[in-house]
Amino acid sequence: MDIATQAIEGSFADPVFDAQTVFRAVMDAMARPGTLQPLPIFARPPAPLSATAGAIALALCDNDTPLWLDPVLQAPAAVKSWLGFHTGAPLANTPADAHFALIATPAEMMALDGFSQGTQDYPDRSTTLILQVGDLVSGAPLLLEGPGIERTATIAPAQMPRHFVEQWKQNNQRFPRGIDIVLATPDGVACLPRTTRIKTMEA
Amino acid sequence: MTAQATDIATYNFAYLDEQTKRMIRRAILKGIAIPGYQVPFASREMPMPYGWGTGGVQVTASIIGPDDVLKVIDQGADDTTNAVSIRAFFKKVANVAVTTETAKATIIQTRHRIPEYPLTTGQVLVYQVPIPEPLRFLEPRETETRKMHALEEYGLMHVKLYEDIARHGRIATTYAYPVKVEGRYVMDPSPTPKFDNPKMHRSPALQLFGAGREKRIYALPPFTDVVSLDFEDHPFEVQTFDQPCALCAAENVYLDEVILDDHGGHMFVCSDTDHCEKRRAEGHRGHLAPETMEPAQ
After folding, report:
1. Whole-angstrom Cα distance, residue A23 to residue A182?
2. Measured between beta carbons, which residues in chain A are less than 8 angstroms from residue B182?
3. Quick check: B63 and A24 CB within 8 A?
4. For residues B92 and B114, what is the distance between their CA atoms, to the nearest angstrom?
5. How far apart are CA A74 and CA A83, in angstroms?
6. For the whole model, what pTM was predicted?
7. Catalytic one among B31, B36, B53, B55?
8. Which of A15-29, A107-121, B8-22 bottoms out in mean pLDDT, i.e. has the lowest?
9. Measured between alpha carbons, how far is A40 from A186 in angstroms, rounded to an integer?
10. Which residue among A37, A111, B43, B200 is the one 20 to 30 A from B276 at the CA level?
11. Cβ pair B29:A20 closer than 8 A
12. What are chain B's domains?
């Protein structure tokens, strides 16, 4: 399949209702951090962009939201042209300019504080990171607490960024500034908003 | 699908265009991530005037899907103008199921009340907010109130509550009673009676606030600490009522005064009509209730 065809195919079959379903899953995941909100496959983006991450980008991104892609996603022209064709989102020059960042290999990603943190006046002007992870069970377990969690929640996302617990603690300390994370797994979505605290980490 | 498509062919599903929905959806996500912070958004003109709930309508339109069940209340009532017309609006433009029963609704849009029936996980409560800025009547400049939120400088609000005490002997604010969210942002709970403030604290439902004219969206995720501001020697307390609901005899609910005649006759009845009807159907009778239920028309 040539790049032009790859760029055009694989978007939402039903743009209005698919976008609503994907958004509601992300909203519920953001409102209840640490829960996996299941999502069927709505999008077929070119590799290495995953179906879930691609669907989230289709649901939330447009020409108002500069996108940053990690090096693995930057490399193939097909990913850029697919996102460009279906969302119209411009590519951000630097991570600090991005409203959304798509990251295919979180384990190798840059530090979280390299992205836009928002300002004290406008903490909403920060980057939302969409991390592609294999699952939420095979990584190091994270014990979560904070708004949206009744007592505690536990997830163990695979392939998380290096020194994630330490980096996340620093992200908490910047509140109300800070980044929010959307974890895109093959069968659903989970979120870590900046208010979620990681209590301890069992090895 | 085809029947539905022809029914709503003149509008996109839920009235708003997709780009507007994306913009509002992004604001909602930020609002949830920063509880109590007012996220600016590009509020659209809606086919109803500002002040009629355009903020709430835009939030509802952006989250609603074909499987949702919508309930709309106006001061607790399902059958007053604002509630009826917004319910009809969504029936027309989104073809969704509507209900008056709190427990059956997935989305409840409200103007100034929280239902008496406890909300559950998975439900979304959407508030229509007139003035989202709790500090606005104390400091009219947006540049200043924004700085006050940024610096967590809320002394002015405590001065206001203190002046209430100095003047009236108690905190006289009875609605739009300011709350502090997760120990950080002071938030206007919208003009709900302060009776409802405790229901916001650690509610299992997601609460979204939309202010159309003022172009702000804010949110409370489930299980979020919402504390009404007070003083140690003047603790926060809710309204109490001397008598139970005149129709269903409910106690510990919020009551509305209803004038009965020109001679000072009045009664107090549940502001939450669904709650009152349910209780009467279960056989509860207040002192002014008819002996038997009138047959439904």
Report:
1. 12
2. 147, 195
3. yes
4. 25
5. 11
6. 0.94
7. B36
8. B8-22
9. 9
10. B200
11. no
12. 2-136+174-228 (3.40.50.11310), 240-290 (no CATH)
